[in-house]
Amino acid sequence: MEEKPKRTGDVRENPCPICGTTSYIWGVTVGDGPGQRLYTRPDGAGWGDGKEMVTRECDTCGNVQLFTKGQ
Ligand SMILES: [Zn+2]
Question: In angstroms, what CA-CA distances link 16 with 1, 8, 61, 67?
């Protein structure tokens, strides 16, 4: 009986949807100011709610995925 390859369990490490490779550069969002970050905020929520986002840039094709921090 063959063993199936074990998955890491972290879906954020899944292959790039554009080119299929798995080499990434992880980072943060930045703006014109040094402390600016991008957040996602649910409809109806107020200022200060929401989650900061982190970036996963594909090292092969440059596609960037956004994830909320601390998932
Ligand atoms: Zn890619």
Answer: 30, 15, 9, 14
Q: For the whole model, what pTM was predicted?
A: 0.77
Task: Using the mean position of ligand 1's atoms as its centre, give its distance from the Cα of residue 47 in Å.
Answer: 34
| Domain spans in the chain, listed from the N-terminal domain onward | 14-30+52-64
**Per-residue model confidence as pLDDT tens digits over 19-65:** 999 999 999 999 998 889 999 999 999 988 999 999 999 999 999 99
19 CA to centre of ligand 1 in angstroms: 4
Using the structure block, give the residue that is written with the tokens 């100011």. 33
User: Which structure tokens are listed for 51?
Assistant: 């989650």
Cα–ligand 1 centroid distance for 45 (angstroms): 33
Side-chain half-sphere of 71: how many Cα atoms within 13 Å?
Answer: 15
